[in-house]
Amino acid sequence: MTQHVPAALPDRIRHYIDGAFVDSVDGDTFDVLDPVSNETYVQAAAGKQADIDLAVAAAKRAFDEGPWPRLLPRERSRILHRVADAVEAQDARLAELESFDTGLPITQALGQAKRAAENFRFFADLIVAQHDDTYKVPGRQVNYVNRKPIGVAGLITPWNTPFMLESWKLAPALATGNTVVLKPAEFTPLSASLWADIFRDAGVPDGVFNLVNGLGEDAGDALVKHPDVPLISFTGESSTGQLIFANAAPFLKGLSMELGGKSPAIVFADADLDDALDATVFGVFSLNGERCTAGSRILVERSVYDDFVERYAERARNIVVGHPNDPATEVGALVHPEHYEKVMGYVEIGKTEGRLVAGGGRAVGFPTGNYVAPTVFADVPPSARIFQEEIFGPVVAITPFDSDEEALALANDTKYGLAAYIWTNDLKRAHTFSQNVQAGMVWLNSNNVRDLRTPFGGVKASGLGHEGGYRSIDFYTDQQAVHITL
Ligand code: NAD
Q: Does one domain contain both 317 and 234?
């Protein structure tokens, strides 16, 4: 299949500030590449401090003077359902653009577009269904909790599943009555520019949603350090999170940090091995392996280890690597040549640290573009870099264990703590292991499927705070306690 270029691509990607598409104040732009040709297909406005200042001023005005924070939840909910309708109505186009810009397989990009719509529907419903607490001291006092939007929320997002991850922050921030400035990832700015029309057509007032493109160290940094932005919700690498944490400290900002991972999948001998194989293959190779919750370390009990490794490697070899726009494709092109180089660097390191049983280089038949063959290393020791460090590509490390204690020690032996996947039919072991594993989220005998009401977040270097369901509502609102003497 040859390169697929979507029709009607924009001739330039601009900021969206106070209801208008604008260029950067200084006119600066940066190149955006597509991951199949690695050629620049568009220029995007490169935002700096001056652009962030304009966007924050518009968002602050809309918050201080506009109707948005003062609407009844039901009124905001109606508008957000219209946003969800609009996302759903153009999900095929969204998937096409996202797949072109990120290299994600088109079928998986479509799933992410549908999830974006679902995020808006979910928070539109939640703010209407929400109740707040009242406490009564009989004859003396009534106390109630008054939830209030906080102000301008700064939303900083990564390049993996960009549109969906933007929706994950935009929906609760807007549902609770805040106004926002979104700074999307510079590798993948294409789909974010669609939000502007979607929000305007749905009836979101000007200034409530603002978008500033640009590099993290320019536009992102200015947003983090802006005194009129009391909240920063960030998703990205742990090292970037640390920097943002330090930069936000002088302002005592509210921070939500969804960071990196190196999540273990632990397969005990008593597990249903076919299910475990299906799920652990999907867990690291779906979304090109560019997934924060990827089960990128697989720990397997020794008695089934050789059998598991052999069958796993065979499945990995059969994964269809292909053009992102081909519906048959299971692994597409990695997002950017810089990221491709990083992942290929780990593949080479892995060859010195473990036993290569599948892949190990560029995908066969793809001389150009960011295509990495699904790669499996077995017998990887916990000291290995490919065991410890987040690769964020289609590369997995498999390690044997002999006892529950050793499995737990291996599972916890990284700085990260985002997710863990446990495969066993022993109920007691499953719950004991969940209790002891250092992970914000655990899936037992289960694929990575998440109910939107559940908390999402990591421990250790994987994050700070939780989003998801009411946790997002908590993050984006002040809970003022009002005390009344009777
Ligand atoms: P990144 O940290 O390089 O960039 C993320 C965003 O931060 C981008 O918009 C970038 O421009 C911006 N940024 C960079 N430096 C900044 C600075 N100094 N100040 C303010 N903003 C700055 O991450 P990435 O490479 O885009 O994304 C991949 C990472 O994201 C992986 O580590 C992955 O695990 C993580 N991730 C985590 C989750 C989660 O929910 N835990 C979800 C998806 C991705």
A: no
d(CA 63, CA 68): 7
How remote is the CA of residue 392 from the centroid of ligand 1, in Å?
12
258 catalytically annotated: yes
ipTM, 2 decimals?
0.97
Expressed in angstroms and rounded, the spacing between residue 269 Cα and the centre of ligand 1 is: 37
CA–centroid distance, 364 to ligand 1, in Å, is 30
3-state SS of the chain: helix, strand, coil percent to 5? 40, 20, 35
Tokens found for residue 367: 């001389």
Query: Which of 425, 446, 421, 447 minimizes the C-alpha distance to 434?
Result: 421
The best mutation among 49, 104, 156 to test binding of ligand 1, ranked by most ligand atoms within 8 Å of the C-beta, falls on: 156
Q: What is the pLDDT of residues 411-453, one digit of tens each?
A: 999 999 999 999 999 999 999 999 999 999 999 999 999 999 9
Domain identity same for 304 and 236: no
Task: Catalytic residue, from 96, 166, 186, 258: name it.
Answer: 258
Q: In a mutational test of the pocket of ligand 1, which residue from 237, 243, 454 has the highest number of ligand atoms less than 8 Å from its CB?
A: 237
184: exposed, middle or buried (Cβ count in 10 Å: 0-12, 13-18, 19+): buried
pLDDT at 160: 97
Strand, helix or coil at 220?
helix
Which residues constitute the domain of residue 134? Answer: 14-259+462-482
